[in-house]
Amino acid sequence: MTIKIGLEAPDFALAASNGEVVKLSSFRGKNVILYFYPKDMTPGCTSEACDFRDQYQNFDELDVVILGVSPDPIDRHQKFIEKYSLPYLLLADPDHQAAEEFGVWKLKKNFGKEYMGIERSTFAIDKEVIVRKEWRKVQVKGHVEEALQFLQKK
User: How many other β-carbons are positioned within 10 Å of the β-carbon of residue 24?
Assistant: First the structure.
């Protein structure tokens, strides 16, 4: 599926690190930063998660909910949250349902091997669940600040 700026984001229901099942549509009335990342506890994903953690207060002041999504199971998410004191929900997408709906489940190549995985991507979704901005093939350094600046200008 292709996400289109200005159209409603696809809804999903995923297990969350707080023990609940979370639907994107349940955040109607709040702005959402939805970020997809490949794997808990890896260097790039840890750096990105900690950057969101470090800017959490600034996002919160803009009434923005941060949701991180990866194929990792809930127990791994909980360890990741505990280890790095992450103040936001992580969602488990083991069947990559949401990743496919957002078009971030891609063929990847690494050291000559091909495999399917998450293409690091972030989506800014407004209070009406409309996609306002997407960042694809995200480079971690400076990304969280760029997302924050976009939301501050809205």
Answer: 24
Please check whether residue 2 lies inside any domain of the structure: no
Query: pTM for this structure?
Result: 0.95
Residue 105 lies in a domain: yes
Q: Considering the domain boundaries, does residue 66 fall inside one?
A: yes
What φ, ψ does residue 71 adopt, rounded to 5°? -75, -5
Half-sphere exposure of 47 (CA within 13 A, CB side): 10
- Give the tens place of pLDDT for each residue, 89-135: 999 999 999 999 999 999 988 888 898 999 999 999 999 999 999 99
Residue 147: inside a domain, yes or no? yes
Active-site residue set: 45
Q: How many domains does the chain have?
A: 1
